[in-house]
Amino acid sequence: MILYIDPGSGSMLFSIAIGLVSVIWFAVRKLYVSLKYRTAGKTDKNKKDIVIYGEDKRYWTAFKGILDELEKRKVNVTYLAGSDDDPLLKEKYEYVESEVIGLGNKAYAKLNFLNSRIVLATTPGLDVFQWKRSKDVDFYVHMTHAIDGGTAYQMFGTHFFDAVLMCSDIFVPINRELEEKRHSKPKELIAVGCTYMDYLLERKERLTASSDQEKTDKISVLVAPTWGSSSILVKYGSDFIRHLISTGFDITIRPHPQSFISDTEIINSLMTEFPESDMLHWNRDADNFSVMKSSDVLISDFSGSIFDYSFVFERPILYTELTMDMSEKDEAWLDEPFYGHVLIPKLGKELKNESFGDLKALILDLVNDSEYHDSIISARDEYWQNRGNASKTVADYLLDKLSELKKT
Question: What is the mean pLDDT of the chain?
Fold first, then answer.
């Protein structure tokens, strides 16, 4: 009797077999990598004092001031870069040892078996997915790199760190609330300021009048949204851009870098429908400083650029409806509304879909009304503390913690 297996069952059995083979292969590979790095660690008698992990070159401005400060104090530190084009690798440091560890599994193979007293990173998700705590690391520190308390990360983003360095004391209570609701061990929560924002502020202040870009009388509008379903370009697309062009202002649209990966079809369609002209510019520069500096108003949504723009350049924003799915984020645990819903309205005016026809009047109102400037300054004082001193404060914290760990 010939055994018959219908195509559906056969396909399922085949998938199961492939899955089992894959599980076994990855388990063997993980064991090999584990033995390899653990053996290497045992032969290395020198435990590193401080390791700083720069996952992506985009975050180099968050770490530069800290590395400069530690270099000035002649403190040995190891900087782990995700890619070989990280600008910090070009710095002529004497006490900073740099190493490129790559991305993804290649990076985790190194990170998961580090031997260090302290590890500092802006990357969340420790011990949640692939990035695991190393048994040879004494203390993990997360540092937020924007106006953020860490609760907008994917769930448990900072949960397994030993300390979180944030930009303001205002974010401490919500983190304590998370700990209480999860019955987790309290972390050290320290308001140090924001190293990345300090870098932007210093850059702005050191520009002399002679090197400033000459400003015209024509109003310049910067559109810098986030990516995905919350993006202005995804939600409103052609209708929004068409009304924007009708204002007669100088328009620069700077899509989020991730948009060219996740929203490729929509972005390409919009760039084709609205090509470059004397009135409209599409910006893909790696550095957004110049376009922020030369614009009068920013139109955005939940993009972190709104805080860079308002707090560093002291200019107002137009923001779209504040809708963001928080169901998979730490914010979902909290009773209070998302801090962005409280902060963003202080920085400008809401742009509703039915108001597109009034865009010109809305923009002129923002540019000419000093009330928004006063509100921005007040919000900045509340949410961005220790301005200009964050790198020094972080360095002080790391060295104090290092001394404490060595004693114990």
Answer: 85
